[in-house]
Each structure stands twice: as C-alpha cells, then as structure tokens.
Amino acid sequence: MIQKFSFDEDLELKRYVSTPKERKPRFDWATELGEERLHRPEIKVNAEDGEREFDLAEIADTIGAALTDLLLSRQEDDIFNEDNRKFVAAIAKNVGDALAEQIEKGNALKLSPSTSRVDPLVATLSRRHK
Q1: Quick count: other Cβ atoms within 10 Å of Cβ 7?
Q2: Element (H, E) at 47
Q3: Among 31, 56, 76, 116, which residue carries the largest CB count within 10 Å?
Q4: Torsion sign over Cα 54, 59, 60, 65
C-alpha cells in the first residue's frame, strides 16, 4: 500500500538519511544471509579503488541501512526485530538470485556503485514497509 507522507515526515526522513552512520544504531544485516550468501566471482564491481568481487552483504547492508533510516524517522524503537531482519534478507536474496540468473544466461556483470542509491531505496521501502 502506498502511503502519503507529510512534508514534516519527509524532512525527518531526509534528516536521518543524511546523518552519518556512526551516529545511528547499527546491525550486521549480512548475518541474516546465512550460508546461502551468493558467491559468484564472475560478478565484478567497479569501485573508486579498482575492481572487486561482488558481495551480497553490501546489498543487505544498504537495504538494512535504508530501513533503519525509515524506521528512525518514524520514531520506531524496534528496528532490528525478526520480521525486519527477514525482510532485509529476503530482498537481498532476491537481488542475488536475479544476478545469478543473469550469469547463468551468459551475461557478464560489472556493477558500479551509485552515489544516490539510498534515496530511491528508502522511497521503495517506505511504500512497502508498514
């Protein structure tokens, strides 16, 4: 269900998104991936410091950080509960499955980190998370 947010709610979310991660509660979202973590050395990431292997943990951490910002902006305390951990893991695994499928089809994958990846992700989570 798509929710409408007030201007104040939007400002609060933007405030949390721009707060340095050191000043927010943290959780190791990658632990929720367990042993099923995608490991495909064929998937490369072009980063500022050169090319490296893709790590699904980065996806889980990005999704988890966006969800944390969203829930903090809503003044919610129970951020790292089981439902939220499963939610983040499920989305990360879906991303991993989609990438693995592309590799199986013979497509070479070179990913580039986006500097604006969090804002659209937060917007998507806002619409999907109660």
Answers
A1: 7
A2: strand 44-47
A3: 56
A4: positive
Token look-up 């991303």 returns: 95
Of the candidates 10, 124, 5, the residue with the CA atom closest to the CA atom of residue 62: 124
For the chain, what percent of residues have pLDDT higher than 90? 31
Contacts of 87 (CB under 8 A, 6+ apart): 67, 129
Which H or E run contains 103?
helix 82-104
Q: Which positions ≥6 away from 11 have C-beta within 8 Å?
A: none
Q: Do the Cβ atoms of 16 and 24 come closer than 8 Å?
A: yes
CB proximity list for 80: less than 8 A, separation 6 or greater: 25, 27
Q: Which two tokens stand for residue 107?
A: 């497509």
Q: Rounded to 5 degrees, what are φ and ψ at 61?
A: -65, -40
Count helices and strands (H / E) in the chain. 4, 3
Quote the pTM value: 0.75
Shortest CA distance to 45 belongs to which of 107, 98, 109, 115? 109
